[in-house]
Amino acid sequence: MKEIALGILASMFFAVTFILNHSMELDGGSWLWSASLRFFFMLPFLLVIVLSRKGMKPLANEMKSQPARWLLWSFVGFVLFYAPLTYAASFGPGWLVSGTWQFTIVAGVLLAPLFITVVGDKSIRQKIPVISLLISSVILIGILLIQVPQAQSVPFDTLILGILPVIIAAFAYPLGNRKMMEVCNGRLDTYQRVLGMTIASLPAWILLAVYALFTAGLPSSTQVFQSLIVGVSSGVIATVLFFIATDRVRDDQGKLAAVEATQSTEVLFVIIGEMILLNVPLPESVALIGIGVIVIGMLLHSYHTMHLSKNAQAKEKEAELQH
After folding, report:
1. pLDDT tens digits for 25-38?
2. How many structural domains compose the chain?
3. Among candidates 176, 172, 180, which has minimal Cα distance to 103?
4. In whole angstroms, how far apart are CA 264 and each of 66, 179, 284?
5. What is the rounded average pLDDT of the residues 90-103?
6. 202 phi/psi in degrees, rounded to 5
7. Is 159 exposed, middle or buried (CB count within 10 Å of its CB: 0-12, 13-18, 19+)?
8. Averaged over 48-72, what is the pLDDT?
9. pLDDT tens, 250-292?
10. Residue 323: inside a domain, yes or no?
């Protein structure tokens, strides 16, 4: 339950991304700057945190020992995640991007067979947790209900350009996160891992920034300020909270799916945020029903996670009694 609470709290800070990316797009800011500036602003904050915790040397050693894997999975987890999200924001409003992003709930569950758990001398390929997939599908139905009213008024090409990049991001984020947990194998804390992934993804962000400079010119002061807010709120606070939650349950696919499903609450925060900050009207009744379905899905995930924890504790007690 603590991990699910952390996931929901992270979602609240993640929601800032969708609201401000839409706001920057409305102001005429380039998505290239929105993407790269976030990670440039994340870097100094993370450096201060890791340095204060005396964690730079272990991080440097880890990155030197497996540079190719750090570069690959940081690119997947950060660049293939965030660049498509900001690109999609230039074609669709925040509700469309954040709503489609919830596909990551199902994507995360479907990725399970790509990972292998070592038990003793045996390597066991992880299986898709069927119950978690079914519960995540309930949440996905709620997301679709939210999309229906607005999708009817959006041109088809806008829908495609606003949806396809986000589906790529929806697979890339949990894949990069899980693979980096596998690479680190508990040797680094969350702050070190996020900083390492930020550093390893910097070459891509620098290239995007250079391209933006020559094609769109310098970013406006408003875009720089809003990117700073996104960098701190979403890039540092939300990412660290979410990674802490997933780290704690990384060995249990069912619990991991439950934590990743908390991202569905981003839609609720985005709807509220856009209503307050961008004067977006209250969703229609069908969308409100969708919100209710999402809440039900989250409650089911919470109940299932509690059930898994109780079963695990019961097995541990039984094993102790046998010994």
Report:
1. 778 888 999 999 99
2. 1
3. 172
4. 33, 22, 19
5. 74
6. -55, -40
7. middle
8. 94
9. 777 667 767 777 777 787 888 888 888 877 777 778 878 888 8
10. no
3-state class (DSSP) for residue 117? strand
Structure tokens at 233: 């709120």
Which amino acid is present at 49?
A: I
DSSP alpha helix (H) spans, the chain = 2-26, 31-52, 56-65, 67-74, 80-89, 94-101, 104-110, 130-151, 156-184, 190-216, 221-230, 239-248, 253-261, 266-277, 285-322
Question: How far is the C-alpha of 309 from the C-alpha of 272, rounded, in Å?
Answer: 33
Structural domain for 51, as ranges: 2-115+132-312
For residue 243, pLDDT beyond 70:
yes
* Cα 117 from chain centre: 23
More reliable by pLDDT, 186 or 154: 186
Nearest to 212 by CA among 35, 17, 82, 22: 35
Provide the pLDDT for residue 64: 95
Rounded (5°) CA angle 300-106-246: 75
205 occurs within a structural domain: yes
d(CA 38, CA 239): 12
Q: Is residue 322 part of a domain?
A: no
Measured CA to CA in angstroms, residue 296 lies from 97, 123, 183, 289 at distances of 22, 36, 35, 11
Does residue 51 lie in a domain region? yes
